[in-house]
Amino acid sequence: MDTNSQLFIFKTDIAELCPNCEVYKLLNRHEGVQQWNIDTDDVDRVLRIESATLSALEIISIINSLGHECQELN
Amino acid sequence: MRIRDADKEQLVKSKAIKQIVQDGFQGFSMNKLAKACNISVATLYIYYKDKDDLIKKLGAEIGHNFFVNTMKDFSPEMPFAEGLWVQWRNRSAFAMEFPMEVACFEVIKHSPHAESIFAESTHMQDFKESMKQFVINARNNKELIPLSLEVFWSVAYGPLYILLNFHREGKSMGGIPFKLTNEIVKEAFDAVIKSLTP
């Protein structure tokens, strides 16, 4: 992991993920996102994001804007 | 910034091994694991990307320990009986010391994760190469009768693993109480050597 980047962990309702999904496309091309993945098998559909520039709130609003719930896990 | 904690990581690994052995992959989940470790799901996701990532890392670590331990004091140049005895000793010592890890590794080995774990392990490749060379040397030195690979493996190691299974279950056929001793291992080993040597 990049020393400047932070790891954020969220609970979401993203049950399915495919290369054509909006979430997939957006997170892949977002400059602020270094790495990301979603554990769609887990009940919490955990989204993990590594970013040096984004805040948790910004990530939540990005995911919300795509029609999904997103809540930071602590 | 989230920080990793070595003790917590160790706890996560041992609980994960226990859950995989008891419930298999289907019954095993990140949420259940977090609860068993008394940590938040988020903490678990600091260590691992997802369930598959955890299983792969766990398998790679157990595999690494197994291969390193199995190769202790062993060389493919050893006389056949001596080398096979070192293998028996190392393998049984590992199984006795880490029964949960061995049981977990068995589950992982028979899963779709095995291929990628083994492909990435150089220890596994070295181990396979050494074991192959050991058998080739034994054949060249006329210390081993010609056998197909699977039959050789079954005869050379099968008895040991069956005895270790009895030991783990604490009983043998028909529920007879059983505890593996050095004498029993030696008795089985002598029978194996007798059947494998010309």
Automatic annotation (TrEMBL), chain A:
Domain of life: Bacteria
Protein name: HMA domain-containing protein
Organism expressing this protein natively: Flavobacterium rivuli WB 3.3-2 = DSM 21788
From TrEMBL, chain B:
Key word Iron present: no
Entry keyword annotation includes Oxidoreductase: no
GO MF entries: DNA binding
DNA-binding segment(s): 29-48
PROSITE patterns cross-referenced by the UniProt entry: HTH_TETR_2
Domain of life: Bacteria
SUPFAM superfamilies xrefs: Homeodomain-like (SSF46689)
Keywords, sorted A to Z: DNA-binding
InterPro entries: Homeodomain-like_sf, HTH_TetR
Occurrences of domain HTH tetR-type (ranges): 6-66
Record protein name field: TetR family transcriptional regulator
Organism name: Flavobacterium rivuli WB 3.3-2 = DSM 21788
